[in-house]
């Protein structure tokens, strides 16, 4: 059986909406579980290991699976995170590598070393398509994928929309570049971007064309994943960040409700999955 597992992000929950209220970890876990999420991602770029250990009992109480998002600043430092993730029972580690040489040739041995660590410890790694890290640039990432067949992605294409400043409609060759990322993705992330903004308000009518584009990306990615996998779980992480990812007005308050938007993205993805055949 193939299952879609939709996760929420701890980073997205602090604060979780425009009120600015930072909820205690037990309430965060309760809200996420009550909303029907399967797990909670712990972002070690926005929190530390102490927070990860503090939230763990609340996740266990609520039946939520933890996912570790790592930002290793050295090649060797990922090892400790992989071991921690294994102890937590995470399905994989989402890697946003903070070691990033200027050339693809310099990046290849680093990626290979991290994959080697992953194999040794028995904890899968997905390299997130993310700015300001080893996969910063779309073209460089595609070159790494060509050089390293075993490299798997966590596809957050919002970063590459801004990175390349793609305008609509995408040219065929531009769409094909994104498709190459989706074909190598073993997990996906939910954020909707334009060519200028990393995170759009999904209900604003002027953003509808971008919402449609990202729904098409998610459909393509999940459909391709199903072709490649006869069984197993695929994680879709809703990761709408607080300010300054979230745009704010002149009063400093967010212009939309991220908690409600995340639930809408969750519902979009679940509909796409159901249309593809659901948990079969």
TrEMBL record:
InterPro entries: Xyl_isomerase-like_sf
Top-level lineage group: Bacteria
UniProt-recorded name of the protein: Xylose isomerase-like TIM barrel domain-containing protein
Organism: Roseobacter litoralis (strain ATCC 49566 / DSM 6996 / JCM 21268 / NBRC 15278 / OCh 149)
